Structures are given as C-alpha cells and as structure tokens.
Amino acid sequence: MTQDPNDAQDTGPIDYLVVEFTSDAMTGEAFPLLVDLVDRGIVRVLDLLVLRKEDDGTVTGLELDELADGSTGLEIFSGAQSGLLGHEDLAEAAEAVEPGRTAAVLVYENVWAAPFASALRRGGAQLVASGRIPVQAVLAALDAAETTS
Known about the structure:
- The protein is α+β, with helices and mostly antiparallel strands.
- The protein has one domain (7-148).
- It contains five helices and four strands, in the order E-H-E-E-H-H-E-H-H.
- Strand 2 (43-53) and strand 3 form a beta hairpin.
- It is globular.
C-alpha cells in the first residue's frame, strides 16, 4: 500500500488478528459481519490472508476464492494485500496455529478512530503503549468481582 505521508496523518489505529478454525467449524457466519463493518466505514481491511497448517507442520496459503462460495461476501476481499505483512509476519502467525487447522490473518484500520487519532497527532501526542485484554480475562475478572461483592 503506497500512501502519501501526509495522508498517514488521517489514518486510524491499525490492528491485526490471527483467527484459527477447525475445518469443520468454518461456518462462514462471521464473514458477512466483517463485510458489514467495512460497508459501514468502521474498519478498512488492509490484508486478509488464509493459511493452512498441516499435521506435519507445513504451511500453505489459501486463496480466498477457495473459501468463498458467494454467500458470505468474502470474495470482495480477494487480493486484499497492503504490503504490511511480510514473510516473517506470516511465519509468526503460522507458529500460533495448531497443526491441522486453518487460520485467517486480518490486518485492519480502525477507521472509526481516525478523527480522534488525527486530532491527537496534530496536538503533538503519540501512542506510547497499547494492548488488548482477552475476553476470557475480562469475564474472569467480572466473575471474581461478583464473587467478592
């Protein structure tokens, strides 16, 4: 993705996900929801790649066309490759995947946050740390707080 450096000032935070599926669990139910997020301008998909890690550990890339059957809308992301993901990134993503599983690697811009992030940058602010709290940790903390109440 080639971008004018001045345009980068208007970019929202960029995140990535690696989502692992068992072959029989890929229902396609989530894909229309991703399409909806894009259609509503909440996120912009920069990269969407699918890989398969075989039982022997070998990793192969799958084309979205191989997964898309026309009912999920997933085919609109065919070719979504910004250049942000390098070979090392994909190898690292593959390390997180269990043998015999398929995974989607999604890099996306949080378009909804772009105006806020731009205003912060114009004011001289810079992001010095970020993170994500796994849902399981939030639920466990809420359960623990409820137990002690």
